[in-house]
Amino acid sequence: MTTYAHPDRLLLAVDCIILGFLNNRLNILIVRRGIEPRWGDWALMGGLVYGGEAVDEAAARVTEELTGLADVYLEQFHTFGEVERDEGDRIVSVAYYALVNQRIATSQLSEEYHARWVPITEVPELVFDHNEMVESALERLRYRATHEPVGFALLPDKFTLTQLQALYESIFGRSIDPGNFRRRLRKMQYLKRQDEKDLSTSRKGAWYYIYNPEAYTAAREAGEEFLLKP
What we know:
Shape: globular
Number of domains: 2
Largest sheet: 7 strands, mixed
Radius of gyration: 20 Å
CATH architecture of the largest domain: Alpha-Beta Complex
Helix content: 25-40%
Strand content: 25-35%
Distance between the termini: 58 Å
Number of strands: 9
Number of helices: 6
CATH class of the largest domain: Alpha Beta
CATH superfamily of the largest domain: Nucleoside Triphosphate Pyrophosphohydrolase
CATH topology of the largest domain: Nucleoside Triphosphate Pyrophosphohydrolase
Structural class: alpha+beta
């Protein structure tokens, strides 16, 4: 019987770019590396894929181990496989980005990994090719946030249009004309204004909104296009 033959050792890993949004900033969660090589250096959260585990399952496990969150937006975006990318062994890494509620995740972070949130604009030098992973993840997120409402995964259940604009400005790294942005938002039937205002920033206050995913699905089926360019 003919079987697969491969003389070289090859390990498969996942690395997760975990993103949050708080105080009008897009932030990334980094950890202190707990093994050699590069013990103690800043890195992304990652790990090897177990033998009986699908790659998507491994990414979900790694994210949950750090944040305590089991149901988050998680997307595979690229595979990093340069021969000498990891100094410790021949490792191919499948990269994912995760969009989480930063406030909730922070309250239940695992202390084992000495994790820290840093602004996406202030990412320090990370191990191996992890900085390249971050840049690639941000590029993919920008495309997805333009064409699909994935960004709402970073917001609390109820939010103001000012918060939503700040989120998009953080993702794209530039200011957005508020008039054009809000005119586009008003056409989105899946954004529902609530009978409640945020009064924390002004006496007049700002209306809260919620995102309705079922209404979005119905809009897509009816041919409505999501396009939210900065």
